[in-house]
Design goal:
The protein is mainly alpha-helical and 56 residues long. The protein is built from 2 helices and no strands. The termini are far apart.
Amino acid sequence: MKPTTIRLPIETLRRIETLVGNRRIALFIREAVENELQRRGKAADESEKKGENSED
């Protein structure tokens, strides 16, 4: 893994800490990013399929 610095509002960081604890913040962020990438990938795939169907 490559270390990456991100900036979060204090309130966002506190909300994450409340949910997962101080020692699991990085894992939470990694999982959130992966989930969002999957969601956007699925949305892009669906958009492409709709575009292909409209050309028929």
